[in-house]
Amino acid sequence: MDNLSGNSISVGLLGCGVVGAGVAKLLAQNGDLIASRIGMEIKLAKAADINPDAVADLNLADGVYTNDAMDVINDPTIPIIVELIGGQGIAKDFVLAALNKGKTVVTANKALIAAYRDEIAEACEKSGADFLFEASVGGCMPVIKSLRESLVSNKVDSIFGILNGTCNYILTQITQEGMPFDQALAQAQELGFAEADPTLDVEGMDTVHKLALSVALAFGTRVNYKEIYVDGITRITPLDITIAAEFGYSVKLLAIAKNHGDFVEARVHPTMISHDNLLSSVGRNMNAVKIVGDAVGEMVLYGAGAGMMPTASAVVGDIVDAARNIQLGCHPRIPAFSYQPAAIRELPLMPMDELVSRYYVRFSALDRPGVLSKVSGVLAKYSISIASVHQKGRHTEGPVPIVMLTHEAKEANIRKALEEVGSLDVIAEAPMLIRIEDENQE
Amino acid sequence: MDNLSGNSISVGLLGCGVVGAGVAKLLAQNGDLIASRIGMEIKLAKAADINPDAVADLNLADGVYTNDAMDVINDPTIPIIVELIGGQGIAKDFVLAALNKGKTVVTANKALIAAYRDEIAEACEKSGADFLFEASVGGCMPVIKSLRESLVSNKVDSIFGILNGTCNYILTQITQEGMPFDQALAQAQELGFAEADPTLDVEGMDTVHKLALSVALAFGTRVNYKEIYVDGITRITPLDITIAAEFGYSVKLLAIAKNHGDFVEARVHPTMISHDNLLSSVGRNMNAVKIVGDAVGEMVLYGAGAGMMPTASAVVGDIVDAARNIQLGCHPRIPAFSYQPAAIRELPLMPMDELVSRYYVRFSALDRPGVLSKVSGVLAKYSISIASVHQKGRHTEGPVPIVMLTHEAKEANIRKALEEVGSLDVIAEAPMLIRIEDENQE
Questions:
Q1: Would you kindly state where each structural domain of chain B is located, as residue ranges?
Q2: Cβ <8 Å between B339 and A278
Q3: Among A150, A217, A353, B415, which one is most buried in terms of CB atoms within 10 A?
Q4: pLDDT given at position B5
């Protein structure tokens, strides 16, 4: 394959949306800088998009644009294919076609990897292709590189991630401005921090995709992302966040994974974390990941988890790794999923019912005598012991909030208890539950 | 060279102190885990220390220990030499000898690299050896890997680092417990967070070594570390920290570097940073580095900056990178100092006098009428405008503190002003100065 023409290496781009355009811009803008570091030019040889307008602002040289992705994949002078189409549809065929040809694939597509991990791994194994996906988790931050390279000697014990900028922006706005969810979402959409259809983000699925991938790399296992417990942020109210703050907690959409040796705990939900926890200071649309390993202890990475140029930075970092490997003839250099294929273990996911956690529960109660006694009676029945109660003043005509923080309890019990409490005639609406993560208590 | 015996690669260790012992332990303890990731065994083939007692607890196999480092360097079956002797003395000869033989060198020795950068670069260029030093800056965190790899497409604009765990521990204790410097240092020594001779740490030189290295990798230039402005933490008092907190600031020993295009700003000193700044939440003996790049924006890495196992984790990460490169025959893979040697520019350091900053100044004044007028008169003479004044109550017999926060002023002017104020007969001791870093105001 004629990969290296003089001292340059050719890259083909599939998808010229926001991130794709960012990659083209970054290669153009900082091409000299990159060459001064790596000693060769990264040349954008072909860029495919079904929509020619997508490349209108990119000043591509003649012949670079094509509307056919297979033109790029089949070009024998292009050893590096960058997939930035996204989603679980056509991107899959392109990625597998490129890998099957032994071409290095760089992608930011967590949804694709979560769904087709096995097919991708098999294609990599057969052809010896490198598969790089730094931008798929945590945007600009080296989460993948840390798990595959820097922390290679660590048994990773746990991962805690704020992995979705849209959710973190919305939660920050609810916290700082006291605005309700819908208004915060609308504002995030206006500012371009949220998609027109924000479902994948606010329901937590985007975070699940990223967690599944992180778990695979960290623990050396396969996870069916569809089995990971997920709860989004749509029900979080300013009231919950205000009360949480009074107890010394922030509310974050957290991806949590723990390595229990012969099983894996993985879950995504709104989580109360102490103000002492560095992750509680992560505001706006920023992301952060805390990785706990047996040798490193706690390590945190913080940065922009999305956005044109931060994501492009991660993609180009991968392109450069790929270019170095191809120039030196050393690929595959690192197993796609961090472990040797034969060493990857099948580990069951812990059923959510078995979780032991502390809980914040808010009941919307009619203001009548004996309510507290009824509610706490139900909790006691399910062996849930209450650490503190917070009852808002009786200023309103309607239902009043009763908030309880529990001691450690079993998820199965708290769910049954909440169902029973919810059916009491003094309770006006379905109770609100937020899990509390106290790392120091583990 | 018989590097790969079966599916293993041999490593030679020079120096079995705390970090060296940690590396031996980590390779033993997590050897299977590492092999399951990289597909080969990392074998500690030889370990040298002048003191045989150093290896007493390491359960080394027969024939591994030697008291002669050159035994290790000259062993043709060992392609990776890990230098953990430290310091600028004999370690230099060993590192250069190994590089000159074309062996990959892994080290944590920032003092050595700061002093002998040119000799090391020359040896690497001549022999094509890989030179890896992740553990030299920020302990377990991937600072070096981020600068050399992940951020390769970024023009790095600035770096802000808390790079010395001893100093950060002491400052945290002064802040949280109100203890004076000497007592906090003694406690740090008792807990093993500070050396018996803490001079390199508390005077800031260790941080300077790390900053010089970071500047070289980030900006593609050579810096003479001896020319970097440095001021340690020995004069910081609980009073300063208390007053800073009242103004909304933490005090940290910060390494600061900014890329001004045709010159470089680099300095190490106690710095007031806003409580909004993520770095202000970095407590205990932890380290953190904020890197600002044109594509990524702000990225922060946080973790243990020292200690046996965190540092060993970074060293073993490098060993694994080296092993992968040797196994695949692809070294040198990344230029030692991030840029191609021919692309490294000579950039002058900005003279400290030209710094423009906001300042915290504390005067110890005799409690007499007209003092404030005299002091502010001197500041006005040097065009230093005062943003706020804080005068502590007159409860004591002795001198009273007057604290001023200035607007932006030139370092040369503030120094002249403080000298003049210090010579006033109403001023009891040399004024205290702390620079304020307001990133948002830049």
A1: 4-139+308-343, 144-304, 353-441
A2: no
A3: A150
A4: 47
Distance from the A422 Cα atom to the nearest Cα atom in chain B, whole angstroms: 40
* Domain range B4-139+308-343, CATH class: alpha beta
Shortest Cα–Cα distance, A238 to chain B (Å) = 22
Burial class (CB in 10 A: 0-12, 13-18, 19+), A342: exposed
How do residues B369-401 score in pLDDT, each as one tens digit? 889 999 999 999 999 999 999 887 655 678 899
B109: tokens are 């020795």
Residues 6 or more apart whose Cβ sits within 8 Å of residue A118: A222
The single residue listed with the structure tokens 């000043």 is A59
Contacts of A290 (CB under 8 A, 6+ apart): A159, A160, A161, A278, A279, A298, A299, A300
A137 and A108 Cβ atoms separated by less than 8 Å: no
Query: In Å, how far is B350's CA from the nearest CA of chain A?
Result: 23
d(CA B292, CA A196): 30
For domain B144-304, say whether CATH 3.30.360.10 is its number.
Answer: yes
ipTM confidence score: 0.96
Q: Which of A142, A220, A325 sits opposite B36 (nearest CB)?
A: A220
A152 CA to centre of own chain: 21
pLDDT in tens, B65-119: 999 999 999 999 999 999 999 999 999 999 999 999 999 999 999 999 999 999 9
Residues of B whose CB is below 8 A from A147 = none
User: CA angle, corner B70, sides to B65 and B72, nearest 5?
Assistant: 45
* Distance, CA of A318 to CA of A133 (rounded, Å): 7
Q: Which of A414, A413, A431 is nearest to A422 (CA)?
A: A431
Residue of A43, A46, A145, A210 marked active site:
A210
| E-strand stretches of B15-94 | 41-48, 65-66, 80-83
**Which two three-digit tokens encode residue A161?**
């991630």
- Report the residue from A39, A142, A333 with minimal CB separation from B146: A142
Does the structure show a pLDDT above 80 at B352?
Answer: yes
**Position A1 pLDDT exceeds 60:** no
In CATH terms, B353-441 corresponds, of 1.10.287.3610, 3.40.1480.10, 3.30.70.260, 3.40.50.720, to 3.30.70.260
Chain B environment of A295 (Cβ under 8 Å): 26, 30, 140, 309-310, 312-313, 316
B contact test, residue of A151, A153, A285, A308 with most B CBs within 10 A: A153
Q: Out of 1.10.10.10, 3.40.630.40, 3.30.360.10, 2.40.30.170, which CATH number does the structure's domain A143-304 have?
A: 3.30.360.10
Q: For residue B220, say whether it is annotated as part of any ligand binding site.
A: no
What digits encode the pLDDT tens for the residues A159-205? 999 999 999 999 999 999 999 999 999 999 999 888 889 999 999 99
Q: What does the buried/exposed string (b/e) look like for B216-236 if buried means 16 or more CB atoms within 10 Å of the residue's CB? A: bbbbbbbbebeebbbbbbbeb
pLDDT at residue A331 tops 90: no
